[in-house]
Amino acid sequence: MEQHRARLTTFMLLALVTFARCDPDGQSTAVNTETSPTAPTNATAVPVSVPMNAAASIKPVQIEIYYEALCSDSVNFVKDQLIPVYRKFNKFIDVTFNPFSQGTIKDNTIQCRRDRECDADSIHACAISKISDKDKLVEFLNCALSEGFQNKTVPIEKCVKDNKIEENIISLISKCATDTNETYPLLVNYRNLATAANVTTVPKIIINKNYSELSLTNLKKAVCDKIPSKDSLPECKDIVSGSDRVVFGVLPIFIGVYSIIKMI
Question: Residue span of the signal peptide, if any (predicted)?
Answer without folding.
Answer: 1-22
